[in-house]
Amino acid sequence: MALLELQGIGKEFGAIRALSNVSLSIDPGEVVGLMGDNGAGKSTLVKIIAGNFPPSHGGIRFDGREAHFTKPVDARAVGIEVVYQDLALADNLSAAANVFLGREMRRRFGPFTVLDHTAMNRRAAQLFRELKSETRADDLVRQMSGGQRQAVAIARTRLADAKLVMMDEPTAAISVRQVAEVLDLIRRLRDHGIAVILISHRMPDVFSVCDRVIVLRRGRKVADKAIADSSPEEVTALITGAKEAA
């Protein structure tokens, strides 16, 4: 059974049509690349799935049920998490504090409650081990590489028990070694049965880690193919319009 199903999704902003009749499905543990030029509709589609705004047309099913998201907390409640390009991390806090930001663990002492830093550090360290990341729970985020920062953001989705993680350009502006680290993190999510939508302009990343690639152009889906049945040259032609559809 598909984890996420979009059926005929359309979105208009006044006279501007951002998406038109987009249908797709994603299975548990599947990694799907979402590609397209700027203005193709990728961000709009992600924001609809994440609950930032409702579609103008069409329907969403998640985990076998009809889904109606009116705000991001609705999508997070069913297991949809987004790792945005800016990561939304607090540089002055530790890795563990960022993982638990807004979900802090507390201990009670009589009428008082205090943050349980020991328990949060222990749980964060466990999450980093599961992800096979070298990130340490008490490391300050401001001292981390781009790959380590991604590990913190991804650990936060693991804490939330996500079923689907959407990652927005996770390998932009980081070194080759850090790119490999981030792609490994995506594979770890897949190994835990978590579906991933990878929004990326980087063809090598998509063809390295994804099972399928979906291409949008001018708000329409023009391809939905297994990676094994496509090529970077074909996807480039689909993105630019040199090839109409696949």
From TrEMBL:
The keyword ATP-binding applies. It comes from the Bacteria. One of its GO terms (molecular function) is ATP binding. Pfam families: ABC_tran. Residues 4-243 form the ABC transporter domain. Keywords: ATP-binding, Nucleotide-binding. CDD domains: ABC_Carb_Monos_I (cd03216). The keyword rRNA processing does not apply. This is ATP-binding cassette domain-containing protein.
